[in-house]
Amino acid sequence: MATHTSHLLAAAAPRTVAVVRGIADDQLDLPTPCRDFAVRDLLNHLYEVVVNFQRLAAKRPVEWAAKPDHLVDGWRDRFEVETGRLVDAWSDPAALESVSPGMGMPQPVVGGMALLDLTVHGWDLAAATGQPYEPAPEVLGALHDLVEQLGPQARKMGVFAEPVPASPDLPDVDRLLARTGRDPVWSATAG
């Protein structure tokens, strides 16, 4: 079975998995567009996202405080497996019912947050490591709507930075990045 959320996650996942697989060990200490996060930190965060949002799909509690290092032998393969499990977790229609007991938000919004992290952090990691990245076109509309909905609170909580000015004729992905406080032309050399 599939849901709209799992369909979008399934479209986004292979693109981010490809970026993660393309990260060399000697790139783990490079800066990323996420202030205060090196590639290693962002990979560990994204790993936590794909694991914890599986639990959130099942409406089970999650632990965000522990910060284990997931980048041990076989981490690229494990990331791909866990990302597949994330898609599967949100394929159950029950995952989208009611309000998340842990987050206090409607479950479809919680699933959208997983999609947002998978997509935007895929771009962050690609930009940091000099890889190409083009998000799945079908996810962008849903993510624009989600960023519009969550933006004020996310900025207040420090999850998003203030929006970066972006021309309306920029590509959808660049406008999405700008709305989350990212400079769409960020590069490691320009910082």
Count of individual beta strands:
0
Distance between the termini: 43 Å
Looking at this structure, what is the CATH superfamily? Answer: dinb family like domain
- Can you tell me the CATH architecture? Up-down Bundle
Q: Which stretches of 5+ consecutive residues score pLDDT under 50?
A: none
Helical proportion? Answer: 40-55%
Q: SSE order, as H and E?
A: HHHHHH
Shape: globular
Structural class: mainly alpha
Radius of gyration, CA atoms, in whole angstroms: 16 Å
CATH class, named Mainly Alpha
Compute the number of helices: 6
The number of distinct structural domains comes to: 1
In terms of DSSP E residues, the strand content is: under 5%
The main pleated sheet reads as: none
Mean pLDDT, all residues: 93
CATH topology: Four Helix Bundle (Hemerythrin (Met), subunit A)
Polypeptide structure, described:
The protein is mostly helical and 191 residues long. It has a single domain, classed as dinb family like domain (Four Helix Bundle (Hemerythrin (Met), subunit A)). It contains six helices and no strands. The longest helix is centred in the middle third of the chain and has 23 residues, at 107-129. The radius of gyration is 16 Å and the shape is globular. The N and C termini lie far apart (43 Å). The model has no long low-confidence stretch (mean pLDDT 93).
